[in-house]
Write a structure and sequence with these properties.
Elements (H helix, E strand, L loop, with lengths): L1 H27 L11 H35 L3 H21 L10 H23 L1 H7 L26 E4 L1 H6 L1 H7 L6 E5 H11 L4 H19 L5 E4 L9 H12 L2 E4 L2 H9 L4 E3 H8 L8 E5 L2 E2 L6 E4 L5 E4 L9 E12 L2 E8 H14 L13
Parallel strand pairs: 1-2, 1-4, 2-3, 4-5, 9-11
Antiparallel strand pairs: 6-10, 7-8, 8-9, 10-11
Length: 385
């Protein structure tokens, strides 16, 4: 059925071009005097036959491309299709208005130039309508009201329809991968938004000559595809870009302001810049640190010292959640299980650090202290004679 429709369309196109273009072709080759060749019926038949042959050759390719277009459009949101259609219609109307004086051009130019203008303006209208659909939605939002000039909260941000609905992912948090597990179990509400400029940066990292960077970039691309294929995670792509900016972090913060969204990251510097610009941030590292169990001085643990510390005779071990443990005199127990006692814990910007001593030292000090204590005098009871 699709092949017949394509052949019919090509036949009508060939009919029009045969009647409109072939007389000029015969005149170009000085064949316009041949009445049996240069007449409307022959021109129409030649155009139809040529385009039917072209349809037969290209029908398979066109059907495959149409299926890909249908699959792409079925995955898009209603706002994408609506504003894309409106943009295309506006572009075609503008092209038709501009083409009015072009129809009087001599030769085939009066037909070819309007077709080119239609294609160009239709594509531009579609792109403008789809890439700026959030701005168009806000522009046509009739529920927004002007703030009262006498109100003291005139500069306060008002919660709109999409206020903090979108959670924008940056490159570092995608490569980290923990956001996928957090979103899957439902601890992140709303929609995860992945801008195309973030995907482009992941692609550049995956094409790096450094093997480590290349592996991290490919891991990030795999995580995006896994989240998009997961029915439990709501992921959308943002096709827009900010041509006046070069840094991805600056583009991400500007997009968050435009959408009233929240940035999800584990980049310490981006977190500080976002706080300065009053952009809300969800830091995965801060969440992980908040979920770590508290350890109080005197609590016992069993760790494995894996390397020497920066100070003399110190050893360094790590808990299962990545917390660093600095063990005094732990250098002598590298690659060995060791019972330790927590002496103190501090919180830093990079995470939490725990300081401890070997448990056997604590026991020996306790026993030594018990020996140094003065013993209570004992009195002997008098014996009866």
């Amino acid at each position: 059925m699709k092949k017949r429709v394509i052949s019919l369309i090509f036949a009508f196109v060939g009919l029009g071009l045969g009647l409109g273009v072939l007389p000029n072709v015969w005149a170009l080759f000085t064949l316009e005097d041949l009445s049996w060749l240069n007449n409307p019926i022959v021109n129409a038949l030649i155009g139809v036959l040529l385009f039917l042959m072209l349809a037969e050759l290209s029908a398979g390719w066109l059907i495959r491309e149409l299926k890909q277009v249908e699959t792409y459009l079925s995955k898009q949101s209603a706002s994408f299709l609506l504003f894309g259609s409106l943009g295309t219609i506006i572009g075609l109307v503008l092209a038709a208005i501009i083409s009015i004086p072009v129809y009087n051009f001599p030769g085939p130019w009066g037909t070819v130039i309007p077709i080119i203008l239609m294609i160009l303006f239709g594509y531009l209208g579609f792109r403008v309508g789809t890439t700026r659909r959030d701005e168009w939605r806000k522009l046509f939002n009739t529920r927004s009201k002007k703030p009262d000039q006498d109100s003291p909260d005139i500069l306060a941000r008002k919660a709109g329809e999409n206020y903090r609905q979108y959670k924008l992912l940056d490159t570092s948090v995608i490569i980290d991968g923990r956001v996928q597990a957090i979103a899957k179990i439902g601890f992140i509400e709303g929609t995860l938004l992945v801008p195309t400029f973030v995907v482009h940066e992941l692609q550049l990292i995956s094409d790096s000559a450094d093997a480590l960077k290349r592996g991290r970039g490919r891991r990030g691309l795999d995580i995006i595809n896994q989240m998009k294929a997961d029915a439990d995670i709501n992921v959308e792509m943002y096709d827009g870009d900010f041509e006046d900016m070069t840094e991805v972090d600056s583009k991400l913060l500007k997009l968050a302001k435009m959408l009233d969204g929240v940035v999800i990251t584990n980049d310490y510097n981006l977190n500080k810049v976002a706080q300065f610009q009053n952009v809300p941030v969800l830091n995965i590292n801060a969440l992980a640190n908040a979920l770590k169990p508290d350890l109080i001085p005197g609590e016992g643990l069993t760790v494995t010292v894996i390397k020497s510390g920066t100070e003399r005779q110190q050893g360094v071990a790590y808990l299962e959640d990545g917390t660093m443990v600095v063990v005094e005199d732990g250098q002598y127990f590298i690659n060995k299980p060791l019972d330790i006692v927590v002496t103190s814990a501090i919180q830093t910007a990079a995470g939490r650090m725990i300081f401890a001593k070997p448990a056997h030292q604590q026991k020996s000090l306790r026993e030594k202290g018990d020996e140094d204590k003065p013993k209570a005098p004992t009195t002997k009871k008098p014996t009866k004679k």
